[in-house]
């Protein structure tokens, strides 16, 4: 069963999302979740790249999505981003069996935490919940 995501209204076409992940499959899921919404997706593969994006574009960023891997580099990044941009809504995605990673994500500033595997529809709805001004991203 395919679902369609409603496009963002004209004033929100410049929505900017930071994605930190080294997982190509998850990157593809994020692209599907944001498909046809007018979103600019800035992808960082390393903590350094993500920090550069945050430092350069912090006022432009609407949402940050961080996929936690086993070495938990994303937690360090999450802590740094939260310290720099406390108001930036952040979504963490962790392995399904990692309660510790979920707890660490929330303790370090994540507003929402999902477990892998995550579907594009579930991710789109979570992003919409992060920012109350963008309910049009939710599945219709």
Radius of gyration: 14 Å
Helical amount: 25-40%
Cα(first) to Cα(last) distance is: 13 Å
Strand coverage percent: 15-25%
Strand order in the sheet with the most strands: 2-1-3-4-5
The poorly predicted ranges are: 8-14
Largest sheet: 5 strands, parallel
CATH architecture: 3-Layer(aba) Sandwich
The DSSP helix count reads 5
By CATH, the topology is: Rossmann fold
Secondary structural class: alpha/beta
Protein architecture, described:
This protein is α/β, with parallel strands linked by helices. The chain has a single domain (10-137), classed as Response regulator (Rossmann fold). The protein is 38% helix and 17% strand. It is built from five helices and five strands. It has helices spanning 24-33, 47-57, 73-84, 99-107, 120-130, and strands at residues 16-20, 40-44, 63-67, 90-94, 112-115. It has a five-stranded parallel beta sheet with strand order 2-1-3-4-5, sandwiched between helices. α1 (24-33) links the parallel β1 and β2 (40-44). α1 (24-33) crosses α5 and α2 (47-57) packs parallel to α3. The chain is globular, with a radius of gyration of 14 Å. The two termini are 13 Å apart.
Secondary-structure topology with pairs:
Blueprint: E1 16-20, H1 24-33, E2 40-44, H2 47-57, E3 63-67, H3 73-84, E4 90-94, H4 99-107, E5 112-115, H5 120-130
Parallel strand pairs: 1-2, 1-3, 3-4, 4-5
Name its key features.
globular, 5-stranded parallel beta sheet, alpha/beta, Rossmann fold, single chain, about 140 residues
Summarize the structure.
With about 140 residues, the protein is of the alpha/beta class. The chain has helices spanning about 25-35, 45-55, 75-85, 100-105, 120-130, and strands spanning about 15-20, 40-45, 65, 90-95, 110-115. It has five helices and five strands, in the order βαβαβαβαβα.
């Amino acid at each position: 069963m395919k679902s369609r995501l409603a496009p963002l209204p004209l004033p929100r076409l410049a929505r900017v999302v930071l994605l930190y992940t080294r997982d190509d499959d998850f990157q593809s899921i994020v692209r599907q979740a944001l498909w046809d919404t007018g979103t600019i997706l800035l992808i960082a593969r390393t903590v350094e790249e993500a920090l550069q994006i945050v430092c350069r574009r912090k006022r432009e960023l609407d949402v940050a999505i961080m996929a936690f891997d086993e070495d938990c580099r994303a937690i360090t990044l999450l802590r740094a981003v939260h310290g720099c941009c406390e108001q930036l809504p952040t979504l963490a995605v962790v392995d399904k069996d990692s309660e510790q990673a979920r707890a660490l994500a929330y303790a370090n500033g994540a507003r929402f935490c999902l477990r892998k595997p995550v579907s594009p529809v579930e991710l789109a709805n979570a992003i919409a919940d992060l920012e109350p001004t963008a309910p049009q991203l939710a599945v219709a």
